[in-house]
Amino acid sequence: MKKGNKLKASFYLSDDVVRVAQDLLGKKLCSHIDGVYTSGIIVETEAYSGRNDKACHAHLGRFTKRTSTMYQKGGTAYIYLCYGIHHLFNVVTNVEGIADAVLVRALMPTEGLDEMHSRVKTKQADYKLCAGPGKLTKALGINKVRNGIYLASSSDTWIENDLDVHASEIVATTRIGIDYAEEDALLPWRFYLKGNKSVSKY
Q: Minimal CA–CA distance to 140: which of 162, 118, 163?
């Protein structure tokens, strides 16, 4: 298996999580798990800031067993179980001690599609395999076991450069499922590639 241009550690250390959420669009999320390589282009993300965002798990410095991963250095994978069913994959950003993260919401599948179909165990079009945060982790075989891994050096889960995305191709809108966040629910911190069929439906 040949690895492409893996993102360097410096990419993840930006202090602007909203910018990183946009910059991740067009990048390729890769997994090499149980001897099988799968990947997909990131087409949808959401930004969360622990400093000033009521939707963030670490809002106002909240530190728990689950959120402790968010305080690690940028480039750490923050993976947690949602509703006891779905594993959600997040990319920690910023320097150690500041809990910012980007939720990867959808991928456009590129490699290992047969394995993805086998993992999800449902018949669906290829472009739908990773059209949602819980769907993409299942398709790529990513779960809580990989919570806390460092993406810049990991050999089983990492992110590569791939597509060049122009600002005109990015749609900014409100995030999903965070009505509890009051005024912060209105922040336009969800980003997706305009017209891409693999963007999540909700």
A: 118
